[in-house]
Amino acid sequence: MARYFLKYAKYSSLALVALAGSATAEGYPERVVRMVVPFAAGGGTDVLGRAFAKELTEAFGQNVIVENIGGAAGFIGTQDVVRSDADGYTLLFAPTAPYTMAEHATPPATYDPAEDLIPVARIAAQPILFSVRSDSGFDTLADFLAVAKDDPGYLSFSSSGAGGEMHLTGEKLKQASGVDLLHVGYRGGGPAILALVSGEVDMMPVVTGSIMAYIQDGSVKALATTAPERLEKLPDVPTMTELGYPEVDHIPSWGYSSRLARPTRWSQFFKRSVKRPPHRSHSWNTWTLCRSVLPICPEQTSWRC
Question: Cα dihedral sign for 142, 144, 146, 148?
Answer without folding.
Answer: negative
